[in-house]
Amino acid sequence: MRLPNSIFLKLLFVISCQQLPLLISPAYALEGDVIRPYASATYMYDDNLRRFSGKDQALASTGSEKMADTMLMTEVGIILDKKISQQVFFIDLGLNRSKFDRNSALDSNGRELNAKWNWHLGNFWQGNFQAFHKKALVPFADFLEVGGLGLNIRTEDKKSADAIWKLHPRWQTRIALVNYEVEYSAENQKAANLNENSQEVELDYISPSTSKVGVVYRHARGDRPVDQIFIGIPISNDYTQNEIKLNVDWSLSAKSKFQFLGGLVDRKHDEVSSRDFRKFNARSNFNWMPTGKTSMNLSAWRENNAQGFVTSSYTLNKGTSLSASLYATSKVTFQGNLRYEKRDFVGDDIFGSQRSDRDKTFSLGVVYKPTLSFVLNASLMHSIRESTLNTFEFDANSVSLTGQYEF
Fold first, then answer.
1. What is the pLDDT of residues 287-330, one digit of tens each?
2. 299: which of 122, 136, 285, 360 is 20 to 30 A away, CA to CA?
3. Pairing between strand 294-305 and 277-291?
């Protein structure tokens, strides 16, 4: 593939600038340093950026929405990491700018904030106050759900607080409050905007090896500020949801761990009761380190998702993924991932024929860390979607290179 020289030279310039401190500064940022500024650049080529279907690709090759494109994202940020007695404070703030070579209408600014206070009170109480904020371009694999091809920015905010009381050497209880908000800039996806408030109560048994088994009850209220419009009639997708789940985090051996969260989920909508559901949702993970240089993760899930679509109140997602890492040397790591998910738009009763998608993703990557402060990450990805509606099918390949320097 031929890459535009202008963007390629920009990437080399950015990465070269990032390596200059390696020549002039003998001090490296180490884990635990209170203040750690960083800068990064990501270069990406995608042969089907807008996730056109096969039918649309011929039109795209001559139209204004180009199929293949390259993108350069630059980012600067700062990490604050401080422990004061038993209290641990962490903040990671990053600002980025994405520029596309052919689809300049998609150029945008983004930002991300992760903040956490891990607090402790004596020997029996601990918990977390956390805040998350992200503003970024919505991937076209998601935005295609509503047929849009223009700029669409998603802004997410999540705030949470929890407290854990160790009432016995073998038992603990946890309570949590969570607020999650998501907002889309595109007019035809605003019906997917969501403000959800939830409360959780959990009781856990702690084994002598610190593994745990618990029961979690969760109550959530989801409000969508913008109604869905169907043949001129506004429809509210506000809902109330209750869950009771088993939570397992168990170390099977020194090299393997099993995690499971699953149980009954009951959702009732304020309107259109045919969209209500009472289903079993579950997600499991198995982590295994067969040797000191290899690790594997196997995940499987069956979940009802209601956070990203305007053509359906919820989808039923069933999938599995397998990832593996090989730590070839202290500086080089190879990674691979396989992912499959079947998504049924079962909350789509009032829209006629039901849609079903099958997404397959294959990726390979290598991470090179020549110093404690500089990291290079290269990856290849192949994505396929098969759908009962041809409009939503696509085939795409991408390659990316990221360099990050931590001062």
1. 999 999 999 999 999 998 766 566 677 889 999 999 999 999 99
2. 136
3. antiparallel
Beta strands 153-168; 125-137: pairing state: antiparallel
Question: What average pLDDT is seen over the chain?
Answer: 87
What would the two tokens of residue 367 be?
């991470």
- Residue 177 phi, psi dihedral angles, 5° rounding: -125, 130
Cβ of 325: how many Cβ atoms within 10 Å?
Answer: 18
* pLDDT tens digits, one per residue of 31-53: 556 899 999 999 999 999 988 88
pTM of the model: 0.85
Residues 247/262, Cβ–Cβ less than 8 Å = no
Look at the domain 167-354 and name its fold: Porin (2.40.160)
Residue 71 class from Cβ within 10 Å (0-12 exposed, 13-18 middle, 19+ buried)? Answer: buried
Cα–Cα distance, 63 to 102 (Å, whole number): 12
Return the beta strands (E) in 138-224 as ranges: 153-168, 171-184, 194-206, 212-223
Q: What local confidence, expressed as pLDDT, does residue 305 receive?
A: 79
Q: What residues contact 378, with CB distance under 8 A and at least 6 apart? A: 365, 366, 368, 399, 400, 401, 402
∠ CA(18), CA(22), CA(23), 5° rounding? 115
SS3 187: helix
Tokens of 241: 């949801």
Q: Which of 217, 392, 233, 220 is nearest to 306 (CA)?
A: 220
Residue 230: pLDDT band (50, 70, 90) is: confident
Residue 2 pLDDT more than 70? Answer: no
In the block, which residue shows the tokens 């202008």? 6
As a whole number of angstroms, the distance between CA 318 and CA 8 comes to 39
Q: How far apart are alpha carbons 92 and 373 in whole angstroms?
A: 16
Query: Burial of 322 by CB count in 10 Å (0-12 exposed, 13-18 middle, 19+ buried)?
Result: middle
- Name which of 43, 41, 101 is nearest 67 in CA terms: 101
User: What pLDDT digit, counting tens, does each position of 331-377 carry?
Assistant: 999 999 999 999 988 876 555 567 899 999 999 999 999 999 999 99
